Amino acid sequence: MLTQILILLVLINPVVYIIPFSSLLNLKHFNFNQRHKIHTSMKTPITFLLSLLIVSMSHERASAQNTFPVLSMQVDCTPTSNYLTVDSIIHFDSTTVFNVQMQIVVDDTTNISSIEIQFGKSESEILRQKTFTFDVSGSLGDGTNYSRNGYNILLDLGSFTDVPLFYSEMSVTRTNNSHSSVFTYHQ
Questions:
Q1: DSSP codes of every residue in 45-78
Q2: 70-186: which CATH number, 2.40.330, 2.60.40, 1.20.120, 2.20.25?
Q3: How far apart are CA 167 and CA 125, in angstroms?
Q4: Tens digit of each residue's pLDDT (9 = 90 or more) over 46-89
Q5: pLDDT band with cut points at 50, 70 and 90 for residue 7
Q6: How many CA atoms lie within 13 A of 91 on its CB side?
Q7: Domain extent listing, the chain
């Protein structure tokens, strides 16, 4: 707790005031109303150490999520037919056909075994559930397609009707059989 207070004092006040460590041992005789100034030659090392501590703490929080190697995931649902009225006004109904593509960006292509996806109208109404083997490119015979360009993976999930609003999720199985967190995308 005291360390956190000291860090806050350093971050908030450029002219750093803290309690000397020798006075912490005997708090009965310490005057809390008196400010104790750090010598100017000590400001840079203390600031550096505290900055290092803050960076290491923020990395700890960021690494708590199990997203490696996935950086991002996005789903594009593009109308391809039955979405224009006679007057060329855009109108979606139950006959509108949408082409669905999932774009995934990864930061490592050597430790991925497969990519598992789900796509549907809602979480309870799944229209496509598939496991793509990593780096098996081309048309896969069931209306899906896999392609990769560097760290960008494009999964063509096929054509569906009546999905202007949808639910999708994706996770990666690594070569050591561990799984990334599940990424969800709603529209």
A1: HHHHHHHHHHHHHHHHHHTTS--TTEEEEEEEEE
A2: 2.60.40
A3: 9
A4: 665 555 445 444 433 333 456 678 888 899 999 998 888 888 88
A5: low
A6: 8
A7: 2-62, 70-186
